[in-house]
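TASK: fixed-backbone design
INPUT:
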């Protein structure tokens, strides 16, 4: 630290008191409101890896939003480890306030009770799955059914005159319990914890209709979470009820969602309060509240919740520099004495901070600890993220029971994760994952030409309804007909290949975007090496993703330009805004490393720190049936070189995304990984198997893979070849669906029998009108049949435009030689099979299909033997 820096303010201090435990880790903050559209959107792997305990969603066959039908998401959610599905029964209706039909309040309530009855009758057909259902009879009643508006029961707020609401609650409660005595009912589901909730609880207690779970919303601040939970617990004691489970089933504002540094503050308050909570739904359904990208990718927020869900042991006291104050440094931490690990998640402030661990028990950690620090950066609402970036990996002395990590250059939009383990076991410290990085704000760049606009400020603590934006501002001007050039002057420390990410966005329904879809711009470095970039689409303006490329730079200054016209490549079509440009120089080895002692353990697996020569401070020791699960990242769908590093003898099997691979080999194995998140699980099959780490390196081109153009297939009915500029070869097939006669059939060749990946390049821009602020894109589906066998239904999330193509991979079983793959679709009926949605929320069409690539999931045993 230089003299000038030394004269600045002292770093803030976040103290983690390992000597004061505050109860078992709960994990309740990872719930989601409308975060699941249906099975596969998002993928089960992405759902499972976020560790949600609860999901709140609409009543089955509801018309409030497309997708999210409670009983359709239920089986897959439970299979992914979920606990409870909260059914918003009023979301059966359109509109907000809810447009429940009827000329009088009595008629409206009678109709609503009929909806309640049908929902319970549907649930009773589900067998054991019904035990995962929680009924929410009313939602925000003070602003809806029992408020003052046009659609209320009698235009009188229940907070003023509660009789009608209380009678309706009692009627709904008794109806549900009469049909299913074991059913659970949640309420009152108010906007906040109003003082009148006391009256509700007194009535419910005296009439024997107390909710099984108490729910309300906190569209407020993390400070109010702590305050209101404590107030509610006091109220329970005063009234002689409970303690009842609590679910804050809507929390956080639009400005917070997707931003790890903001969401960790909410997580800390919720975990400290030991309640469940669901992230609020401000945007589109089926992306885990701006955590999931496409079907199987993750942004920074997902990786935060992945780290949160893997905390184990007991939580410990965390003393923040500004206790219970939002937009400051906050955190949550755990101590697992069995694993001999302490973990802390923190963030929310820029600049420097000291992270101080106190009460570091010598019997648990010894005299030296191994500390690993990673950063979970903000990557935008629709911008995918790789695994968290390793910043530091070092051994530190324990002095008087304390360990201090002095940190600088913290980013308030990032969250950070530090893990302490026993040190002194010979682990080699890892270098940082990146050697250098910088952010360059678009509003600070030089713009020449016409059409310039500096837009903002966007989201901020005083404008929480707006989207988070780096620096608060963004720049427009790169659009159809423009001659604009946005120039970034950069200065890099050494020669090398740099990752370059352009954070940008286009509103998919904007006038200049509707025609083509993704806006194209042109990049040059120092006026040379032109290339075309297609910038991300989003569901509104200031929704950020990133377009990535690599550039060769020499040490020193350079000018990187984004232009709306290039003399060699053409002109921009569309309209985009640019937030920032990130440059990053990675470490020289591009192998991704995942240490087993930090992974998810099950079946009796344990962490051991007694194995010198391990890559990190410990290993995972698996008994027979024990498991270690790694959550890994792949940039694209396709082959990767994967190695499980083992110590000593022992045997095991492994799987990728639930697909069995076979025996764990000692050496690199080519495996198909899906673009985005992959779940790799090793299971011990001997009495003892020691797993050190997992390594993932780039493809070596060993798995057979062949691409097939959709337009070369057999088309029947309305299926037709249509021009799409961004399809491979400029053509793709649409018109599939609205009945099985309208189909695409491809003949593909497999050189071996067994499991293969179909990587389907597709587009889906279907989006019916919405009734409120949520855009309501629709997931299309395809019924995929192999060799005339039973069809498998696959959901395809929106790509925001029919000329914007993404990949989605589906595992299938092929026979050697020729195979036929047939794609059809038809409108899905409602739950009972005799009615259909009348608002265009269940598409009859398959997505537009561009090409299908067939790749073996793994080598055969013969391949492995001959490597």
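OUTPUT:
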């Amino acid at each position: 630290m230089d003299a000038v820096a030394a004269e600045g303010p002292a770093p803030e201090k976040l103290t983690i008191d390992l000597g004061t435990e505050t109860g078992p880790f709960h994990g309740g903050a990872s719930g989601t409101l409308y975060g699941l559209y249906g099975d596969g959107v998002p993928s089960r792997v992405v759902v499972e890896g976020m560790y949600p305990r609860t999901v709140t969603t609409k009543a089955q066959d509801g018309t409030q939003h497309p997708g999210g039908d409670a009983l359709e998401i239920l089986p897959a959610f439970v299979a992914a480890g979920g606990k409870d599905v909260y059914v918003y029964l009023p979301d059966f209706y359109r509109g907000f306030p809810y447009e429940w039909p009827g000329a009088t309040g009595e008629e409206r309530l009678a109709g609503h009770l009929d909806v309640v009855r049908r929902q319970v009758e549907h649930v009773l057909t589900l067998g054991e799955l019904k035990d995962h259902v929680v009924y929410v009879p009313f939602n925000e009643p003070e602003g809806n059914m029992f408020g003052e508006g046009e659609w209320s029961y009698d235009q009188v707020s229940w907070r003023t005159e509660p009789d009608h609401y209380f009678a309706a609650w009692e009627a709904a409660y008794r109806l549900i319990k009469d049909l299913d005595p074991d059913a659970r009912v949640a309420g009152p589901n108010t906007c906040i914890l109003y003082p009148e909730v006391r009256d509700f609880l007194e009535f419910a207690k005296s009439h024997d209709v107390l909710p099984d779970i108490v729910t309300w919303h906190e569209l407020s601040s993390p400070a109010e979470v702590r305050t209101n939970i404590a107030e509610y617990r006091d109220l329970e004691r005063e009234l002689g009820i409970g303690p009842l489970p609590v679910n804050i089933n809507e929390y956080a504002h639009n400005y917070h969602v997707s931003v790890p540094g903001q969401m960790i503050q909410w997580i800390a308050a919720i975990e400290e309060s030991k309640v469940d909570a669901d992230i609020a739904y401000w945007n589109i359904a089926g992306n885990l509240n701006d955590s999931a990208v496409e079907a199987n990718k993750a942004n920074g927020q997902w990786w935060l919740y992945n780290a949160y869900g893997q905390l184990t042991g007991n939580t410990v006291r965390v003393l923040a520099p500004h206790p219970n104050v939002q937009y400051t440094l906050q955190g949550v931490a755990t101590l697992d004495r069995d694993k001999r690990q302490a973990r802390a998640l923190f963030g929310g402030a820029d600049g420097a901070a000291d992270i101080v661990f106190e009460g570091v028990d010598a019997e648990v950690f010894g005299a030296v600890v191994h500390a690993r620090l990673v950063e979970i950066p903000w990557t935008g609402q629709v911008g995918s993220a790789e695994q968290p970036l390793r910043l530091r990996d070092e051994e530190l002395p324990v002095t008087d029971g304390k360990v201090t990590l002095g940190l600088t250059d913290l980013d308030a939009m990032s969250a950070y994760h530090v893990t302490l383990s026993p040190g002194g076991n010979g682990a080699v410290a890892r270098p940082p994952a990146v050697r250098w990085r910088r952010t360059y704000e678009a509003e600070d760049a030089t713009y020449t030409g016409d059409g310039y606009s500096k837009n903002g400020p966007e989201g901020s603590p005083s404008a929480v309804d707006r989207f988070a934006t780096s620096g608060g501002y963004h720049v427009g001007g790169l659009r159809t007909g423009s001659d604009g050039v946005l120039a970034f002057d950069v200065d890099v420390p050494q020669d090398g290949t740099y990752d370059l990410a352009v954070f940008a966005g286009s509103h998919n329904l904007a006038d200049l975007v509707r025609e083509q879809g993704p806006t194209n711009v042109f990049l040059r470095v120092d006026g040379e090496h032109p290339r075309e970039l297609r910038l991300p689409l989003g569901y509104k303006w200031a929704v950020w993703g990133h377009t990535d490329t690599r550039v060769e730079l020499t040490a020193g200054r350079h000018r990187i330009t984004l232009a709306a016209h290039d003399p060699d490549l053409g002109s921009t079509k569309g309209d985009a805004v640019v937030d920032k440009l990130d440059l990053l120089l990675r470490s020289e080895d591009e192998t991704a490393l995942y240490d087993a002692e930090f992974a998810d353990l099950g079946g009796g697996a344990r962490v051991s720190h007694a194995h010198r020569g391990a890559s990190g401070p410990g290993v995972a020791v698996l008994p027979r049936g024990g498991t270690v699960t790694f959550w890994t990242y792949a940039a694209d769908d396709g082959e990767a070189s994967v190695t499980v590093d083992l110590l000593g003898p022992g045997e095991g099997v492994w799987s990728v995304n639930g697909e069995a691979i076979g025996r764990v080999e000692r050496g690199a194995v080519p495996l198909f990984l899906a673009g985005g998140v992959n779940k790799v699980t090793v299971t011990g099959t001997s009495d003892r198997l020691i797993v050190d780490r997992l390594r993932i390196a780039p493809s070596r081109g060993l798995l057979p893979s062949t691409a097939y153009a959709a337009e070369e297939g057999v088309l029947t009915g309305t299926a037709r070849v249509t021009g799409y500029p961004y399809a491979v070869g400029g053509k793709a097939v649409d018109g599939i669906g609205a009945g099985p006669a309208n189909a695409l059939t491809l003949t593909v060749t497999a050189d071996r029998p067994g499991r293969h990946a179909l990587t389907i390049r597709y587009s889906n821009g279907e989006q019916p009108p919405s009734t409120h602020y949520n855009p309501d894109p629709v997931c299309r589906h395809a019924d995929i049949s192999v060799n005339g066998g039973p069809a498998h239904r696959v959901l395809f999330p929106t790509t925001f435009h029919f000329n914007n193509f993404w990949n989605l991979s589906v595992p299938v079983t092929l026979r050697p030689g020729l195979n036929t793959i047939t794609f059809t679709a038809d409108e899905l009926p409602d739950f009972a099979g005799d009615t259909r949605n009348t608002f265009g929320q269940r598409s009859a069409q398959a997505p537009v299909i561009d090409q299908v690539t067939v790749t073996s999931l793994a080598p055969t045993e013969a391949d492995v033997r001959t490597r």
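COMMENT: Confidence is low (pLDDT under 50) at residues 1-6.
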